[in-house]
Amino acid sequence: MIMILMEWAYMATLSFLMGFACLAPFRKKGGCQIHSAVTYMMAGLLILNVYAEYFSLFAGVGFWASLIAVFAAVIGGMLLRRDLADFFKISKTQACQKKKERSDEGLENSKSLWRKKNKAVWLLYAGLTLLFAYGSSRGYMHYDTGLYHAQAIRWIEEYGVVPGLANLHSRFGYNSASFALSAFFSETWLIGRPMHCVAGFFALLCACKCAAGLMAFWKRKKVRISDFLSIGGLFYLIAVFREMVSPASDYFAMLVLFWVIMTWVELWEQERDCPIGEKQTVPYALLSLYLVYAATVKLSTAVILLLVLYPAVLLLRQKKWLQIAGYIALGLLIAFPYLARNVLISGWLFYPFTFLDWFPVDWKISKGYADSDAKEIQAYAREIYNVYQLDQPLKQWLPNWFAAQAGFDKLLVLAGWAAIPVSAVLAVLGAVRAVRAGRVTVAPHVDGAVSEREIGAPLPARRVAHLTPLCFSLLQLCAVVGFFFWQLGAPLVRYGYFYVLFLPLTVFGSLYCMAAEKLAGSEQGDNGHKWLKNAGYWAFVGLLVAFFTYKGYNLIQMVRELAYEPYYLWQQDYVDGSAEMYEVDGVTIYVPTDRGQIGYNKFPSSPIVQDIELRGNSIRDGFRKKPKRICKNAWNGLTEAQHFRKEIQHENLWRNYGRRGRNPFLAAEYKGRAETVFKPVRQRYSG
User: Fold this and answer.
1) Which terminus of the chain has a smaller tally of CB atoms within 10 A, N or C?
2) Residue 30 and residue 27: Cα distance in Å, rounded?
3) 307 contacts 291 by C-beta, under 8 angstroms
4) What's the count of helices (H) and strands (E) in the chain, helices before strands?
5) What are phi and psi of 94, to 5 degrees?
6) What are phi and psi for residue 587, nearest 5 degrees?
7) Helix axis angle, 407-437 to 468-488, nearest 10°
8) What's the burial of 339, exposed, middle or buried (CB within 10 Å: 0-12/13-18/19+)?
9) Could you read off the pLDDT of 182-231 as tens digits, one per residue?
10) What are phi and psi of 626, to 5 degrees?
């Protein structure tokens, strides 16, 4: 735990400096003012992740990658030292010192008030840091982490990317961008053992975002949709509290989506409550880049990229062609290393999906095997344990899947389905309002912008585009499409916790906010029953109390259960499973014997004995399948009968591995190969 706090201090400093430096052009030329250190850290983590992916294309992500990044961050901090001083209010302190001669007492009072106001906030953030460091130091190590996550991270640390790596272990082909960031902060080259606390740091930043949102609610005394999303974010954080120790890509993707959508909705609410003229496109465009990054972490999040349409419409209406080209270039810059790694690892652009077959490389995974792998993911998520029954109709597999879910997950899914028709109505109404609103009149004021309704008289003012209802309709559309994509695709709750929460929270949260605003502005609230004006606020406070009481009790129970684990100095390590060995052209490969989990130390590994070979003289040259030497006469090699017997032996080898029950995935592996490899051979040579 102590080592995690030290690593997080390094991560926070490096990511803040990188984010602050890279967002400088958007602050100076784009007018995007950012006052949150968490926002800079999230930007820095994105930049470091993309940097680590590019670095992995040429070398292992270790000492030199860290040294170059630290050097760049220090240079950026030195060049922007004045901006950094302004951000940390150093200039404000100097200004106060100049006024000391006029009013020493007033200065001291202002300082004490500032300290008193921020003391509780800093204590809250410090408590969250300790809590999430505690959760990241111990807990449940995800099964897939022992299966291939740890091995994938070590491959990036030592070699970067190796062509045909998916031939050694097919799950390396999934290639989440988060593995590159985990490898960058693994620090094995420095301390001799791997750290895996990046997921916990993402969770901490998301928790700080949720806490800031709820503190803003307490100050404004008004309920917003973003407050419901803050509750949803905290719910997810508590749900995965015991699993943050694992660098699983699912957690990275869900946390990034929660953070992006909470920020997006807050921006939309600020523009709705206080229209100040021309819409700000830079914040939305930057958040769209985060969505591109989320798709590289987990491909299933790509459906939320529909939100990119909103800043695209704003930029097109303003005819900012240079900015449009710039943001497209940045999006491609983020996506390119992910796509390049996909092709180098598996030969496919989006493994295990084979709809784009553009690269005829010698290390490519066969189409039949990739299709079988994709079907296996869907079958497992739908609670169908036979991949050949994947074509079951919706009315057959959906009830069975729903019956297998946990009790509270059932309630969330039902809330999502109930929110779909309501969301459709809200989206249509929002679109109609966007068309009818057309343009809204605003005027400058000393405190911001005021409308004609506020002062009761016409004002000389310019007219600006009003797309707020369109933004809300697009949010609703993304929520519905994302929920459908998850439910009808691979509906494992772990794969799509965000989709399950995003839809009902935005739909029913918006209805609640509308009702609260209507009630606050009603005649009864103004005259007869004044308590009705704040009924929505106090009802939400009651909801918060009930939520924190229920989930807080669960959190305390988890903390107590993990208290006896001895990880207060060092973090819980990866699993270290038992293994057997075999050789591939002189390279020793480990095969796990304990349910497929092998961990980090026994490297490299494959789930079974693979029929592969090196592409060159060393492991850096990569792997490929051994070529099939099929000859039709005995003068040029094997006869057809001999070749047939060899293939039958190979098939029996796979079947035996599946029967031994060492790995729950072996049966599926065998079925996929039996259909795509062995069956055609039998049909060809059975005569």
Assistant:
1) C
2) 6
3) yes
4) 28, 8
5) -65, -35
6) -95, 125
7) 150
8) middle
9) 999 999 999 999 999 999 999 999 999 999 999 988 888 888 999 999 99
10) -65, 135
Residue type, 426: L
List, for residues 560-582, the tens digit of each pLDDT value.
Answer: 999 988 999 999 999 998 889 99
- Rounded mean pLDDT, 318-325: 90
Rounded CA-CA distance 576/581 in Å is: 15
- State how far the Cα of 256 lies from the Cα of 56, in Å rounded to an integer: 22
Q: Do you find a cis peptide bond into 607, omega within 30 degrees of 0?
A: no
Does 664 sit behind a cis peptide bond, omega within 30 degrees of 0 on the bond before it? Answer: no
| Nearest-angstrom CA–CA distance, 64 and 48 | 14
Whether the CB-CB separation of 18 and 76 falls below 8 Å is answered with yes
pLDDT bracket for residue 597 (50, 70, 90)? confident
Min mean pLDDT across 165-169, 467-471, 616-620 is at: 467-471
C-beta neighbour count of 435 within 10 angstroms: 10
| Secondary structure (DSSP) of 330-375 | HHHHHHHHHHHHHHHHHSSTBTTB-S------TTPPPHHHHHHHHH
- Round to whole Å and give the CA distance between 117 and 468: 34
Place of tokens 């404000």: 92
Between residues 263 and 641, the one the model is more confident about: 263
**Beta-bridge partners for 614:** 623
Other beta carbons within 10 angstroms of residue 650's beta carbon come to 15
CA 430 centroid distance within chain: 28
Between CA 234 and CA 207 the distance in angstroms is 7
Q: What is the pLDDT of residue 376?
A: 84
Q: What are phi and psi of 529, to 5 degrees?
A: -120, 90
Cα(547)–Cα(222) distance, rounded to whole angstroms?
A: 18
**Maximum pairwise Cα distance, the chain:** 105
Contact 251, 180 (CB under 8 A): no
Which distant-in-sequence residues (6+ apart) come within 8 Å of 644 by Cβ? 681, 682, 685, 686
610-629 average pLDDT score: 86
* 579 CB neighbour count, 10 Å cutoff: 17
Alpha carbon distance 12, 45 (integer Å): 9
Residue partners of 604: CB distance under 8 A and separation at least 6: 151, 155, 168, 587, 589, 590, 619
Q: How confident is the model at residue 672 (pLDDT cuts 50, 70, 90)?
A: low
User: Across-strand partners of 465?
Assistant: 439
Q: Which two tokens stand for residue 388?
A: 């050949």
Torsion sign across C-alpha atoms 521, 527, 528, 532: positive
* Strand 463-465 versus strand 448-450 pairing type: unpaired
* Contact (CB, 8 A) for 678 and 650: yes
**Are 441 and 451 spatial neighbours (Cβ–Cβ below 8 Å)?**
yes
Other Cβ atoms closer than 10 A to 53: 28
* Amino acid letter, 242: R
642: how many CB neighbours lie within 10 A of its CB?
13
Q: For 618-634, give one letter per residue: b (16+ CB within 10 A) or e.
A: ebeebbbbeeeeeeeee
Residue 52: pLDDT band with limits 50, 70, 90:
very high
Amino acid occupying residue 593 = T
340-363: buried (b, 16+ CB within 10 Å) or exposed (e) per residue? bbbbbbbbbbbbbebeeeeeeeeb
The sign of the torsion formed by the CA atoms of 503, 509, 512, 518 equals negative
